[in-house]
Design a protein that fits this description.
Layout (H helix, E strand, L loop, with lengths): L8 E5 L4 H12 L3 E6 L4 H7 L7 E5 L5 H14 L5 E4 L21 H21 L13 E6 L12 H16 L2 H6 L1 E8 L5 H4 L2 H4 L11 H13 L8 E5 L2 E4 L17 H17 L1
Parallel strand pairs: 1-2, 1-4, 2-3, 4-5, 5-6, 6-7
Antiparallel strand pairs: 7-8
Length: 288
């Protein structure tokens, strides 16, 4: 059974910018109430919040690496908009300098893993605890709630330069697939999108990463990916456990044994530039 998000309530982590802000706008246009959970409010979000509408779009400061913050965000959602129909675990980082496997900037934990994977898992658990209560009264084949996770094509690639990112996104895809039985048993649909390169600040504001991109490499726009995010949640074509690959002008459902992605937006033509830089760093470590 299709699961329309029109008039529903959603939490979108990382919703203040990029892909997730584009998704927030889509949800708002469908009349959904949305809690935008992010580490800080951005100017584009502030401007969007000022627009007049009948539904509620509210910002809640949230650090997804903090389980306490996530619990407080769910409590806030219940008090302001009511039950959470959709949990979109969108917050993520692309192996920044402050949480980078090769940079050795962290002493106690890898925040990239905490943000990209652990927080996503806990956000999902909170959503399941709430949504499963609706299973008793659900109709046959009815979807009573949904969880949308943001994975990446990096889940299928072994990129030497970004091991934390690849590992965390592989975890997201695997985690999503393991929760497939929730859909049939309880009507809770857990799905994911695995996009290729998307033109967001995660890329454009980091020259060290843009070195891997050639002029002929194609990006998805945040709006294009947001449309795919909406589709995988709403359409009954995609059951729980689906991981939907999204690249330029192409989508496909990917399983653990699927071949590697191909087509525009699926590869970085100059990745060897960054590879050589990392190997140069390791060579210095070897000889020091």
């Amino acid at each position: 059974m299709a699961f329309s998000l029109a008039g529903k309530n959603a939490i979108v982590t990382g919703g203040a910018s990029g892909i997730n802000l584009a998704f927030v706008k889509l949800l708002a246009n469908k009349g959904a109430n949305v809690i935008v959970a992010d580490i800080q409010e951005t100017k584009p979000l502030t401007n969007f919040l000022k627009e007049k509408r009948s539904n509620q779009i509210l910002f809640k400061k949230t650090d997804v690496s903090s389980f306490q913050d996530l619990r407080e965000t769910f409590d806030y959602a219940k008090k302001t908009v009511g039950k959470v129909d959709l949990m979109c675990n969108g917050a993520g980082v692309f192996e920044p300098e402050w949480s980078n496997f090769w940079a050795d900037t962290e002493k106690d934990t890898y925040q990239s893993i905490n943000i990209n994977l652990s927080g996503l898992m806990y956000g999902s658990r909170l959503a399941i605890r709430e949504q499963i209560k609706r299973a008793k009264s659900r109709k046959p084949n009815e979807t009573v709630g949904a969880i949308l996770n943001i994975s990446s094509l990096a889940a299928q690639y072994a990129l030497f330069n970004t091991p934390l990112y690849c590992a965390s996104k592989a975890g997201v895809s695997s985690f999503t697939r393991t929760l497939a039985p929730l859909h049939e048993e309880y009507g809770i649909k857990v799905v994911a999108v695995a996009p290729g390169m998307v033109k967001t600040p995660l890329w454009t504001e980091h020259p060290e990463k843009m070195k891997a991109i050639a002029e002929n490499d194609e990006f998805l726009s945040p709006e294009e990916l947001a449309e795919a995010m909406l589709l995988v949640v709403e359409s009954d074509k995609y059951p729980g456990g689906t991981v939907l690959e999204v690249i330029k002008n192409k989508t496909r459902v990917i399983n653990v044994d699927s071949p590697l992605p191909s087509g525009p937006g699926s590869t970085m033509s100059n990745i060897e530039v960054i590879y050589e830089e990392t190997m140069g760093q390791l060579e210095k470590e070897r000889t020091s």
